[in-house]
Design goal:
Layout: E1 8-12, H1 17-28, E2 32-37, H2 40-52, E3 56-61, H3 67-81, E4 86-89, H4 105-133, E5 137-142, H5 155-174, E6 180-187, H6 203-213, H7 222-233, E7 244-247
Helix pairs in contact: 1-2, 1-7, 3-4, 4-5
The protein binds 1,4-dihydronicotinamide adenine dinucleotide and butane-2,3-dione.
Family: Belongs to the short-chain dehydrogenases/reductases (SDR) family.
EC number: 1.1.1.304
Keywords: Oxidoreductase
Length: 255
């Protein structure tokens, strides 16, 4: 039996990288998947690939910095599929490895709007839906090893991801008796298109962070992260709640 048979899932940032791999694996395991991204062309391609493989998917144009678009994403999914069981908050962008002495207010806000506020707003909307409807549900947040230590990116990215760890733990704890589970994944360095979101790279920050990146045994593939997202999104993880699963090939085990 497919692991997500009968489930409806939203995956944000699903036009590329880990989001794409998660959307495809969820669909392969029986879920109806909303492929949400502000890159609509990319989202449509992923939805088409899923449907060609016999799955069910719908591309949706969503900018996670826009509250109206986030809320519409969730309302439309429930209207069209009659249900929403799994929300994967995966959309994210990198900073330019800036340390605090170099970060601008504008860059800080830009990173937080996508990586943190967008996640909180989607979680708030879906949790209220589940609570009001007295339904159970699962949230999976793509965080980062940069959300667990200070050495993997700049100050804005690290702080934005540390905040999602707190969002994950707090929400998992608060609604644990209501059948709502919330977990995160902390991937290490994974081969995706995230580099294209890096603007104005700091030589100083890159040099400092690069020292720890050099300790990573290897880079990961998006499909390896998708397997963790499948575990956390499915009933196989029914007793796992309010925690973060590191998936980094052993990179951060050594320090
Ligand atoms: N690649 C890596 O080494 C790591 C990435 N991560 C996290 O994994 C998540 C996925 O990133 P990747 O697959 O690596 O990157 P990616 O760049 O391949 O995919 C990110 C997707 O998010 C979308 N996106 C960006 N801003 C958006 C917005 N405002 N609204 C809607 N969609 C938006 C992009 O269009 C893209 O399709 C991110 O949260 C990232 O921070 C975490 C650890 C390591
Ligand atoms: C992009 C990112 O989060 C890492 C850990 O490389």
């Amino acid at each position: 039996m497919a692991k997500l048979e009968g489930k409806v899932a939203i995956v944000t940032g699903a036009a590329s990288g880990m989001g794409r791999a998660i959307a495809k694996l969820y669909a392969k395991e029986g879920a109806k998947v909303v492929v949400a991204d502000f890159n609509m062309e990319g989202a449509e391609t992923v939805a088409k690939e899923i449907m060609e493989d016999g799955g069910t998917a719908k591309a949706m144009s969503v900018n996670v910095t826009d509250i109206d678009q986030i809320e519409k994403m969730i309302d439309t999914t429930i209207d069209e599929y009659g249900e929403l069981n799994i929300l994967v908050n995966n959309a994210g962008i990198m900073d330019g490895f800036e340390p605090v002495g170099e970060i601008t207010d504008e860059k800080w806000d830009q990173i937080f709007d996508v990586n943190t506020k967008g996640v909180m707003r989607a979680m708030r909307k879906v949790v209220n839906y589940w609570m009001n409807a007295e339904k159970e549900g699962v949230i999976v947040n793509t965080i980062s090893t940069g959300g667990l230590n200070g050495a993997h990116a700049g100050v804005a990215y690290g702080a934005s991801k540390h905040a999602v760890v707190a969002l994950t733990k707090n929400t998992g704890f608060m609604y644990a008796k209501n059948g709502i589970r919330v977990n995160g994944i902390a991937p290490g360095a994974v081969e995706t298109n995230i580099g294209s979101s890096m603007k104005g790279v700091s030589d100083f920050g890159m040099q400092r962070a690069g020292m720890t990146h050099g300790l990573s045994p290897r880079t990961g593939q998006s499909e390896e992260i998708a397997e963790a997202a499948l575990f956390l999104g499915s009933d196989a993880s029914s007793f796992v709640n309010g925690t973060v699963l590191t998936v980094d090939g052993g990179w951060t085990a050594g320090f």
